Amino acid sequence: MKIWGKIWKSNHLLKDSVVEDLSDDTRTHKVFHAIDEFCYQFDLSKPIWLDTNIADFKRHSKTRFTQDSFIDAVDFDYLEIQVIEED
């Protein structure tokens, strides 16, 4: 599975990264591991999954974490994650 993480501000891509997980873990665990890796790479606290994030991810394999999802203040508009390749 490959997941693309992107940080956006004012419709500009500030940072992005792709995490590939070839383990036998569940899809959910792979997504959580990818988010952990993005947070480490981008020096962020872990976002909270709100109901809208869960619904968007189930429907489109993509979601955006805005300031509402973070406990700490962030200097971007949103962190977007997207599954770009399934196992």
Structure description:
By secondary structure, the protein is of the alpha+beta class. It is built from 2 helices and 4 strands, in the order ββααββ. A 4-stranded antiparallel β-sheet has the order 2-1-4-3. Strand 1 and strand 2 form a beta hairpin. The chain is globular, with a radius of gyration of 12 Å. The N and C termini lie close together (5 Å).
Apparent shape: globular
Estimate the helix proportion, in percent: 25-40%
Q: Whole-Å distance between the termini?
A: 5 Å
Give the number of helices: 2
Mean pLDDT: 96
CA radius of gyration is 12 Å
Q: Which percent range describes the beta-strand content?
A: 25-35%
What ranges have pLDDT less than 50 throughout 5 or more consecutive residues? Answer: none
Output the structural class: alpha+beta
The helix-strand sequence is: EEHHEE
Spatial strand arrangement across the major sheet: 2-1-4-3
The biggest beta sheet, please?
4 strands, antiparallel
Number of strands: 4
Quick gist of this model?
Helix content is 30%, strand content 33%. With 87 residues, it is α+β, with helices and mostly antiparallel strands.
Write the SSE topology.
Blueprint: E1 2-9, E2 12-20, H1 27-42, H2 51-60, E3 62-65, E4 78-85
Antiparallel strand pairs: 1-2, 1-4, 3-4
Key features of this structure:
33% strand; 4 strands; 87 residues; single chain
